[in-house]
Every structure is written in C-alpha cells, then in structure tokens.
Amino acid sequence: MNSRNSDIALLLTRLIVGVVFFAHGAQKVFGLFGGHGLQATVTVMTKIGYPVIVPYLVSFGELFAGLGLIFGFLSRIAAAGMFIEMLGAVLLVHWRNGFFNDKTGFEYPLTLCIVCLGILIAGPGRFAITRRV
C-alpha cells in the first residue's frame, strides 16, 4: 500500500474511533446522546468500587482523546490513553462476561483497544493537525 493510501486509512480510522470516544465521553460528561452526565457516572463507578478519580479520568479522557483523534492532535497520546483505558475495560469489567454477551461482552472494548494500539504504533498519518504544525 502506498503512503497516500496509508494516510487515508489512518485518517478514516482516527475519525471513526475519535467520534466513538468523543460520543461516549460526551455521554459521561454532559449527558448527551442518551448519557446520564458526570455526576451519575461518578456515582455509579464509585459505588462499584472504583476510586473517585477513575470516573473523571475515563469521562474526560474519552472526551478529549476523541477530539484529539478526530483532529489528529496529539493522536499518539490520545491513542495510548484509550488503549490503556480499553485494556482496563476488557480486563476489569467485561472479561468475566465472555466474548459475546449482549452489551457486556469484551469483543467491543477489545476491538477499540487494538485499533488504538494500531494508531499508537502507526501514528496519525499525514492528514493530522500535528503533522502541519
């Protein structure tokens, strides 16, 4: 595959994964797209035993990493953060539910985890803000 095709593939990957993370972050932080907002996210996650900092890191991490991936700004940092978060989601939350289990299986967070690893390794491609700065 030539360099231009690789750059287009990376752009499309960043855009789609970025939109997914941004939307999930917006649900958690602002209650958009059917979400419950930050206070509810903090309440639920601390009630099940996570330290109070975790829901804030997850919520704002998804929101800002999503924007970073969409625009190609600090994409490797955004991808690294979401790789770690999704690996945690697989191992700490979804693994016990099996590969498929309605919305609680680990196939979806595992896919996001590995896609983020790919962006981390490959970089954002030519069509990224940080490539122009």
What does this structure look like?
It contains six helices and no strands. With 133 residues, the chain is mainly alpha-helical. It has one domain (3-132). The longest helix is centred in the N-terminal third of the chain and has 28 residues, at 3-30.
Set down the secondary structure blueprint.
Layout: H1 3-30, H2 38-47, H3 53-71, H4 75-94, H5 107-122, H6 129-132
Write a brief caption for the model:
This protein is mainly α. It has helices spanning 3-30, 38-47, 53-71, 75-94, 107-122, 129-132.
Order of helices and strands: HHHHHH
Mean pLDDT figure: 94
The low-confidence parts are none
Terminal Cα span:
26 Å
Strand content: under 5%
Overall spatial form: globular
What's the tally of helices? 6
What is the count of β-strands? 0
Please tell me the total number of domains: 1
Structural class: mainly alpha
Helix content: over 70%
Main sheet summary = none
User: Gyration radius, to the nearest Å?
Assistant: 15 Å
Keywords:
133 residues, mainly alpha, single chain
